[in-house]
Amino acid sequence: MRQQVPVSTIMTTNIIKLTIADDLTKAESLFKHYKIRHIPVVNGATIIGMLSYTDLLRISFADAIDDDEEVVDTTVYNMFTVEQVMAKKLITITPDTTIKEAAQILATKEFHALPVCEDHLLVGIVTTTDLIKYLIDQYK
Predict the structure, then answer these.
(1) Which domains does the chain have, with CATH numbers?
(2) What is the structure's pLDDT at 58?
(3) What is the dihedral of CA 58, 60, 62, 63, to 10 degrees?
(4) Taking the CB of residue 17, how many other CB atoms lie within 10 A of it?
(5) How far, in Å, CA of 115 to CA of 109, rounded?
(6) Residue 68 backbone class (left: φ over 0; alpha: ψ -120 to 50; beta: rest)
(7) Which residue, 48, 55, 88, 97, shows the most beta carbons closer than 10 Å to its own?
(8) Rounded to whole angstroms, how far apart are CA atoms 131 and 36?
């Protein structure tokens, strides 16, 4: 297996983003439409937080209720803002960070995505799924 491969080779660069002005209903829609689990929250091109689908599930009662699920989601989501729910203490990496270094960070922390920044600007995102796909490719 190659040792010094940069995350730029596996990171997602077509990033779905939110701003703190967006609401959680929009966030849920993006999670479901794009089948993703992490959305960076930005101010311009600068990352200020990360929202995960798990964060949304923590505040939603919808999974426990089958009747009129959409109404419950909207009501609960309107009680919180993106800024209140997002993770604010982020670890970022650069495009030159090695895949091994990114994997080590993700293996020791309680999150599953790393924003990739260059000069404080968001240029990509690396997730545990990206790492697993990379690992699988090594066995082809």
Answers:
(1) 7-137 (3.10.580.10)
(2) 84
(3) 0
(4) 15
(5) 14
(6) left
(7) 55
(8) 15
Burial class of 127 by CB neighbour count within 10 A (0 to 12, 13 to 18, 19+): buried
Q: Tokens 């009129």 label which residue?
A: 68
Half-sphere exposure of 49 (CA within 13 A, CB side): 18
Q: Which amino acid is at 49?
A: G
- pLDDT category, 61, cuts 50, 70, 90? low
Q: Which residue has the higher pLDDT, 59 or 135?
A: 135
| C-alpha closest to that of 114 among 6, 3, 21 | 6
CA dihedral for 113, 114, 117, 120, sign (positive or negative): positive
